[in-house]
Design goal:
The protein is an alpha+beta fold. The chain has one domain (24-148): Nuclear Transport Factor 2, Chain: A (Roll). It is 35% helix and 46% strand. The protein is built from 4 helices and 6 strands; from the N terminus they run αααββαββββ. A 6-stranded mixed beta sheet has the order 2-1-6-5-4-3. The longest helix is centred in the first third of the chain and has 18 residues, at 2-19. The N and C termini lie far apart (49 Å).
Length: 149
């Protein structure tokens, strides 16, 4: 009986490991572009933010439609707290890549320190990227706030 239980356990684990898909290089590059966009937000770096976005980026945030100017205003210009720090962590759910377009769905958790207060926010987001000059850039980002504490 113990041998059968051990066999079933080993078989189940090996099946689960086999079923996990590894990412292609294209999928890794697309996910990297998303992470770098958020690194730019964390660093309040508008130049890098623009490098990982299309010029006509649209962001669907809190029931509003933002463009690059809105994003820079809200995330950088109005965010001058000296103790600002943002740390992001991603759980990628789905990454689809075509020749010139890609989409990524992920859970994002950000721990943000600002004005002596720490807030942790969780979102479910979907990003559409396009390939421009051999680089992936975010064209659309739709964000749904899940939890804020």
């Amino acid at each position: 009986m113990k041998k059968i239980a051990l066999f079933l356990t080993v078989f189940s684990i090996s099946t689960l490991l086999y079923c996990q898909e590894s990412l292609t290089k294209k999928q890794e590059r697309v996910q990297h572009a998303v992470v770098k966009l958020f690194d730019a937000l964390s660093n309040r770096d508008s130049i890098s933010l623009k490098a990982y976005s299309t010029t006509d980026i649209t962001l669907y945030e809190y029931g509003q439609i933002w463009n690059m100017d809105t994003l820079i205003l809200k995330a950088i210009t109005l965010n001058q707290s000296a103790d600002f720090k943002r740390t992001n962590s991603f759980e990628f759910i789905n990454t689809m890549v075509d020749k010139t377009t890609a989409s990524v769905t992920y859970r994002l958790q950000s721990v943000i320190v600002k004005d002596g207060k720490q807030v942790t926010s969780q979102w479910l987001e979907t990003v559409v990227l396009i390939r421009e000059k051999k680089e992936w850039r975010v064209k659309h980002l739709h964000s749904t706030l899940i939890k804020r504490s």
